[in-house]
Amino acid sequence: xxxxxxxxxxxxxxxxxxxALKGAVKAEMGEATESVADxxxxxxxxxxxxxxPVIRFTEGQKREYPAINVGxxxxxxxxxxxxxxxxxxxDGLKTLNKENRLFGxxxxxxxxxxxxxxxxxxxxxxxxxxxxxxxxxGSGRTKLDKVDQFEKGLEILRKLGxxxxxxxxxxxxxxxxCILAEYYAAKKTGIQVxxxxxxxxxxxxxxxxxxxxxxxxxxxxYSEVIGNIQRDCNSARKYWHFIKLMGRSASHIALxxxxxxxxxxxxISEEIEAKNMSLDDVVTYIARIVADRAxxxxxxxxxxxxxxxxxxxxxxxxxxxxxxxxxxKNKDFAMIKKSAQRDWVIxxxxxxxxxxxxxxxxxxxxxLTLDRDPHGNVQVSQIETEKLLSEMxxxxxxxxxxxxxxxxxxxxxxxxxGYEGRCAAPSNYDADYCYSLGYTASMLIAEGKxxxxxxxRNTTAPADEWIAGGVPIxxxxxxxxxxxxxxxxxxxxxxxxxxxxxxxxAAQRERWAIETDYVYPGPIQxxxxxxxxxxxxxxxxxxxx
Length: 545
Description:
Elements: H1 5-11, E1 25-29, H2 39-45, E2 55-59, E3 69-74, H3 82-96, E4 101-105, H4 109-114, E5 117-119, H5 122-128, H6 147-159, E6 162-169, H7 171-186, E7 192-197, H8 215-236, E8 240-245, H9 252-261, E9 265-266, H10 269-274, H11 279-295, E10 301-306, H12 314-329, H13 338-348, H14 351-359, H15 362-367, H16 385-402, E11 412-417, H17 419-422, H18 428-446, E12 452-457, E13 467-472, E14 477-482, E15 485-490, H19 500-514, H20 530-533, H21 538-543
Parallel strand pairs: 3-4, 3-6, 6-7, 7-12, 8-10, 8-11, 9-10
Antiparallel strand pairs: 1-2, 2-13, 4-5, 12-13, 14-15
Helix pairs in contact: 3-5, 3-18, 8-9, 9-19, 11-16, 12-14, 13-14
């Protein structure tokens, strides 16, 4: 592999570890746990892995561990730091017993089912330490939720002598890990399954998982670019920049980037839903700020938009739900002449939703009818919400201008930051956090645990004071409707409107709207003063004040 100067320098970085993991460990067991909701149903579905205690590792006495083989899977979308989870897992296993071996399954869970794997040796691991991406073994979105998949996986695990499997993924991937752990436990296979919390969206967190890895780096990358745009914005002073950010189900990224960069407008999907705002309410809110800034002589600004905001506007959510059902029942929709598709959709929708659909810009209306994802849902990343909102704000301002209520100029630029942050080289925080998560997973395996997620907490403190352990995955689960059926899934963590991060944002946004008080974070810092290169997200700091 050809390396850049940065990769060569980063290879020398030694991730920090909690004090408890620097030598022999002891597992301290907490109280029995229960699921976050639907306790009786979840208990009945997971009789072998429900109610287990939270685990905390402390310094212990040195012990001998038999040699074992372990498998690892990267699942779902990429997030910075995945390679460090694998590095930490590898180093932890070798600390326990030098004869331990690690096997990576290629291109995600599909590699387990297809028996596609490679052994991860020290020379391979060393090539990828502190680097972004998942390219060491690749990732995939195959769902492990069927018995035939479990059995195919069991075949290769037994063939390779693997007694533990680590699945690194988001809420869906860890839900699958929990189901797999239960299946293997029920069959008394002796195979352990451990999860690690990954998603840049930041929606896999709770009392025991204070952040998912990759969120820190992605927000720093996006905030750097937003800062660059704001500097350009404040230099040219003639454009409104509408910036869409990743985050389908939660607005954590938009909120964190707003706290880091202080834009003029930042939409929070959860607030829009809580206030039952209409599309016109959202458009009017943005247009009012544009008009107020124009009155002060500022015909420029920035607007941050969460990727999934369109599904949090109640009226649009209803339209999308009806469109999902309509297109599911009419598989030949794509065969209809493109020029006739809009009228056909309008003719099939209810009167209320037909009016909403007809009011949308033609490009966005068309995007709402594109192919659905495997769950039958609209793919929000394909909907140019930033263009929808800017076009409708432009219409609103034109109406106000005709009434003599607006005399400014409104020119726009559009951006969508998604893939740019998913495979960035991990920040010091993510490099350390991910390495600790992987190392902790090796200790959970050594303790014979299954159905647990690796947990590292207290990460706003120095690394020596971090708390490493495990949390039963069933503790995070509830029942939700998926594809028309109630399924056990890990509960998504949305932005809490009564939480410290949102309150801090809400206290400042009226001033940011009118003043041009932009912050320019600059590039991610790997080397330099600790207050620059080791800082966690503002969200995490505010949550732990």
